[in-house]
Request: fold
Amino acid sequence: MSRAISYIMILIGAVVAIYAQADEQQNQFILIGGIVILMLGIYRVSRHIPSKRDQNDDTDETAG
Reply:
């Protein structure tokens, strides 16, 4: 459920940011809001991805 909300936030943020850019008289607040929602969604998704450094540290200790 949480991951689905993150993907929805990414989609909504991207659509809002593109919509704000497409208008001739773009509203800066709508653009900033869309980017903030997009970045929050990306942050929520990236929290669940393990670090590459953590994976490499485990393999280096067992090899030496």
